[in-house]
């Protein structure tokens, strides 16, 4: 019966692809495979691979620099800003296609993008994964959740947990207040804006105590939001925290 059902699902999927051929995630042009990008959008997508900052995942110049458990390759931002997490990674640079996709997921009512984008985040997280790690998304305030209908970080983190067969705790962190968007202001303003804005849910506290945590968000700019979330987790007794994001904002060069 199971094989029969799988066969039917395969036939239905094939029929749907005839009627609705795969589309580019970013611009909806026809592509050959589900979850892919057209050549133009691919050319504007800056995937982060090779040498990157150990702390935040920002791409760094240089080739052949290998990171191990005892070494740190740190960007200028991470030398000067508090990072209460251990290591970090990002799938894309936040410009071009990376920026468009992040905004579509967050503000464009496109939760359907989450499985494909979550797979990219899961691949970026490969070096961070540890046995018995728990996966926690950065939370949104209930008012914002009511408007948006979903937490984009939770959609990504659910996929990361599924790919790596780890425990997903989508409600481990709560927003205590609805902070303004972090789009403007100085780095100091951004850290002040999110200060004391989160807490660990009381029923989740026993599930994070002593556990390594992978914190997931859609975009990292200054890192203020992730720093607040990671600090709250550590204060609640978690083990080491690492972070992974879909897109990392970097300075223009």
UniProtKB/TrEMBL annotation:
CDD domains: PRTases_typeI. Residues 15-79 form the Double zinc ribbon domain. Residues 194-248 form the Phosphoribosyltransferase domain. It comes from the Bacteria. Belongs to the ComF/GntX family. PANTHER family: DNA UTILIZATION PROTEIN YHGH. This is ComF family protein. The lineage of its organism: Bacteria, Pseudomonadati, Pseudomonadota, Alphaproteobacteria, Rhodobacterales.
């Amino acid at each position: 019966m199971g094989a029969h059902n799988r066969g039917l699902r395969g036939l239905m999927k094939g029929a749907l692809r005839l009627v609705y051929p795969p589309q580019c995630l970013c611009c909806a042009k026809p592509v050959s495979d589900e979850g892919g990008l057209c050549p133009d959008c691919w050319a504007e997508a800056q995937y982060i691979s090779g040498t990157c900052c150990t702390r935040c995942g920002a791409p760094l110049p240089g080739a052949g620099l290998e990171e191990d458990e005892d070494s740190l390759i740190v960007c200028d931002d991470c030398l000067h800003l508090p990072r209460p997490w251990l290591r970090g990674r990002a799938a894309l640079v936040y410009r071009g296609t990376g920026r468009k996709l992040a905004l579509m997921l967050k503000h464009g009512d496109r939760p359907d993008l989450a499985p494909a984008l979550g797979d990219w985040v899961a691949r970026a997280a490969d070096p961070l994964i540890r046995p018995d790690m728990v996966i926690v998304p950065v939370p949104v305030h209930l008012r914002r959740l009511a408007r948006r209908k979903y937490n984009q970080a939770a959609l990504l983190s659910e996929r990361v947990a599924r790919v790596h067969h780890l425990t997903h705790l989508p409600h481990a962190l709560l927003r205590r207040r609805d902070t303004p968007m972090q789009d403007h202001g100085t780095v100091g303003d951004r850290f002040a804006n999110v200060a004391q804005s989160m807490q660990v849910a009381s029923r989740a506290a026993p599930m994070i105590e002593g556990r390594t945590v992978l914190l997931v968000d859609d975009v990292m700019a200054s890192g203020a939001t992730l720093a607040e979330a990671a600090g709250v987790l550590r204060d609640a007794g978690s083990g080491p925290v690492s972070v992974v994001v879909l897109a990392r904002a970097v300075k223009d060069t």
